[in-house]
Write a structure and sequence with these properties.
Elements (H helix, E strand, L loop, with lengths): L1 H12 L1 E5 L4 H13 L4 E5 L5 H11 L12 E5 L4 H10 L4 E2 L5 H9 L4 E2 L1 E2 L2 H9 L5 E3 L9 H6 L7 E3 L8 H7 L4 E3 L1 H10 L3 H18 L1
Helix pairs in contact: 2-3, 2-10, 4-5, 8-10, 9-10
Length: 220
């Protein structure tokens, strides 16, 4: 089934690039650089003006079907606050949906269309509520509120929860999150900030390679 395949592929990839920007064109270019650097899971946030245009363009450029293909990448939508927006992103080509918080209608909409959904959670209550609705991956957000030790603490009573920290993950602590049992990690501004300051987008590919290398070394 496609949904289960995508969830496994995201887990295997290990790193999700969370991309924001001022225009669809900017986000598409940043995504291309991240993919060139080896990050194969791209989350286009709905804070980007005309974000669905970027999702559609990237969905046409890349495919999740064959991990060995040159055009392999998984394109999803982030910062999805409601079910209406979730449906728009799915129609635009998003293959997974991420929310900063828990919204029952968004989860149910994604389940209806068999699209992986990753709602944000801050509390155990949030996590349990997500599990009760059949959520496969829960976004721990903001991740910088916690240390990696929170994952084994949560998995004590909730071993069935797949947790993806986002926010505060960087090259210095990625290995700690993965060793602690993170399903995957979300990377935000740390991937792009140096490139945006300097105007040198090649830095995005370089940073992406560093993240993937760090992930592979930790998993080895």
């Amino acid at each position: 089934m496609k949904k289960l395949r995508l969830i496994q592929q995201i887990h295997d990839a290990g790193v999700v690039a969370v991309l924001r920007g001022d225009s669809p064109e900017e986000v598409v270019e940043v995504a291309q650089r991240a993919i060139e650097g080896g990050i194969k899971v791209i989350e286009v946030t709905m804070t980007v003006p005309f974000a669905t245009e970027a999702i559609t363009r990237l969905a046409k450029m890349y495919s999740s079907e064959d991990p060995q293909a040159d055009n392999y990448a998984i394109i999803g939508a982030g910062t999805v606050l409601d079910s209406e927006t979730a449906r728009l992103t799915i129609l635009a080509g998003a293959e997974f949906v991420v929310s900063p918080g828990f919204d029952r209608d968004t989860i149910m909409l994604c389940n209806r269309y068999r699209v992986p959904v990753m709602p944000g959670a801050v509390t155990v209550h949030d996590i349990v509520a997500s599990l009760e609705l059949g959520v496969d991956v829960i976004k721990l957000f903001p991740g910088n509120l916690y240390s990696p030790s929170v994952i084994p603490s949560l998995k004590g009573p909730l071993p069935q929860a797949n947790i993806m920290p986002t926010g505060g993950v960087n090259l210095d602590n990625l290995h700690e999150w993965i060793k602690a049992g993170a399903f995957a990690v979300g990377i935000g501004s740390d991937l792009t900030k140096d490139a945006m300051k300097s105007g040198n987008l090649d830095l995005i590919s370089e940073k992406a390679r560093a993240y993937i290398d760090a992930f592979k070394k930790t998993k080895a």
